[in-house]
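Q: Got a minute? One more chain.
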Amino acid sequence: MEQAGERVHQHDVFISYSHQLDDGPATAFQAAVEHFGRPFYRSRDLRVFRDKTNLSASPHLWADIEKALGESAWLIVMASPLAAESPWVRKEIRWWLEHRSGDRILIALTAGTIAWDAERGEFDWERTDCLPRKELAGAFTQEPRWVDLTWLREHKRISPRHTRLVQAVAEFVAPVRGRSKAELIGAHLRRQLRFRQTVTAISVVLAVLLGIAVVAGVRANEESDRAAERQLVATSRQLVAEAASIQDSQPDLARQLLVQAYRMAPTAQAHGALVASAAIPDVLPTDGSSQGVAYCPSGGLLATAADDGVTLYGTDGNRRLGLVGTARGSATAVAFGQDCGVLAVGDAFGHVRLWSVSRADEPRLLTAVRPDDGGVGGLAFIGRTLRLAVITDGAVPHVVDFEKPDAEVTDSLPGTTLAGITETIAVSPDGTLVAASYEGGKVRLMSLTEEGGLTVESTTNSPSNALAFSPDGQFLAVGGEEDSARLWDVSDPSRPSPAALLGARSSLGVDSVAFSTSGRSLATGAGDGTIQLWDMSDPLRPAQGARLTGHSGRVKALAFAPDGRTLASAASDGATRAADGSDDLNGTVRLWRVAEAERSSSRVFLPDGHMSAQPFGKDGHVLALGSPSTLWWVDGAAQPHRLSTLTTFNQGGQQVSFAPDGRTLATGTPLKMWDTSDPLEPRELTTTALRQGADLVLFSPDGDLVAADEDDRLGLWSTGKDEPRRLALLPAATRSPAVFLDDGRSLATVTRARDAVQVWDVSTPSEPRKAATLRTGAARPTSLAASDGTLYVGDSHGAVTAWRVRGDRADRLGSSTRHTTAVEDLAVHPQGATAASGGADGSVRIWDVSGPENPRESAVLDVGAGTDGMAFSADGHTLAVSTGGATQMWEAEPSTIQQQLCAQSEPITREQWAQYLPDRTYSPPCVEPQPTVETSA
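A: Always. Here it is, folded:
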């Protein structure tokens, strides 16, 4: 054990206390200890460690506290009944007694009773209620030094020089300093006297300097305002970091912290975090343990199974539609039929019920059956029929045919013994093969006869807590007690062969597996609450994707939404149902936004890609993309849906751009004009094709011009009421990308050699002339965007550079290189303070360009693949990013995002506020202030 004097400690004293009770007394006590006996020119004399003043935000809280304990010479315990029950106080005392000695523990009584039994040489634990008995029983050989500070609670504020407090603090400082109390107090009083004498002398000087101080005070106030602003910015950034660290484990609190961060200071970091906040999982609390989740195959419904039955939600997870109850016992398994009109529910007492859910708000029981006495462990519909494969605890699998009268139940073919099968079952997509766990460490594959019987095809040694067939039926994923999942090729069910091993990094085994509907992703849920996503593009070599760590209990079930963009997970975690913690844990269902095997922060996903530079129509509610070109309704308040399709003559797609009026649309193959006032029935304005095709179609900001490329040259076209006509061809070889600047008076293009950006003066469209030339050095310009007179250039080296363009002059303002590959796309928010860039590396970066001299990255969005188009809507609410085969969309307006975050989370509590904003008055961001009501006497 370490002895005093063997080392120089970082801290003289470590204060252990209950935050709930003694935060105020601990603050006053710390100030008094540090102030005691110090000369006026020092900030403190003793070095005191207290977590709230010494610890910064860190994900490793105990490691930091343990380090501080190891660097402290003495431990002061502020004793109270709440401290005796505090796990942190008890943990700190245990560490001290294991690594130090009880001789260096001092006790400050702030509440409760301390009694010492002199005969036994021990605390009288019948009367002592403010110290943890388990930790301190037998820790002292003689009565320890303790001081009564219960009176300190009567003072909301107290000076460190308060006589009674000085006397009490001296009791602690004496052993720490190794001096007598009388000597310390005498020295303290002498220093105070000298201090008063010094203050008297200085007062004369201060009077002379008063005039100077007044002038300096004005400047100080200005600096104070700037310091206060800097403090708000620093706190806002800290809240953003805190939210990122807890977004999976405490999603509601993370949402609240993000709203408060932007409320305190609308920094670039706070804005970027809001845009990416859709990555925070939604939480659906359940009563008791969650047992299962299922999505309707055609979309629209999500079912969660738990102790209180089955709850039906809309697929966004935020609309609770209905409740399917169970006659007795909890719901243990749930599955939708292929048409989504029926739902099968199994319970803990062996009942299987079939419900009509064509009206989710009014589920209707169709029929029920009880195959045997065991609880239903798993069930699955067989193909598109109303037959179910069901497995119960410790029994054989059953086939329940709800298409026959009285729901006929078939166990297996005569003479086939399947005893020992546990509770996991899966059916191949074509309904011909059933897999079930067998004797805990095996998987049995069975073919299904037309009569509903089961024929054993093979038995494989593989721990099988969870089973799932791939959508094509070729592979079977198996999870078990070991720390990995296995993939089996079951194309020949009589001779399954191992295909791949998927390490779960969990010593508690794999309890759930699920394939996405595309088969390109697999999710495995472990006993330690973690979820691992796998990229199954090559099933023989699965690649690890994102790891989801929000659950604190066993992940019992997983299910992908039909579009593969949401993963639902059910686990045995959550808040206890009883206040004293004696009841079982509540379960939770989490909804994770995913893109294949990675997490996603996009709120909307469209199956069309190939997006042009001006794809948004009026009000940002109509979006044109895809091949053939399709108009989509993308109002954020509703699910996107197709409106109409435009004629195209190119199998590779065409460029599609909206004019600033939001109604006129130009398509590039061939070049045509359309009136989309009624987006359900677009009307062609041009009667003849203007040319064979255009790889670039771009409207000027005023809508009077269209730039369209013609064999490596750009043509300028008028857009009057008459047939559009070509005004000029730019005289030099140019190619896309291109962008208009200065309200359409200038046009920037990339040279044919892709070694520079050429700016053209098109103020007279029929006579365009060269203006400025921007050189990008060794890098090639790959993308362009503009806001007023600022031109942004993305290049092949991953840099985004801002240029100020004025007539024939172009000045480089600032640059930032954050992409690891070429910047394929750029877009600027209509208000000009925010930009977005997309790279071939699969990332979209959000930039604060309010000061273009110093572009600052505020967020990174993972889109999973290289970008193929990017644009902000005209109202600035939406950022759309195309990746070729799909388009993802983000809400970009902070006020709208904050409203959504508030609607998805409970207001921050006083306790949480005190933890993250201890120096500020409680003012939750998502609660409207109550108006003051005046009443007459």
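A: Confidence is low (pLDDT under 50) at residues 1-6, 412-421, 932-937.
Q: Perfect, thanks.
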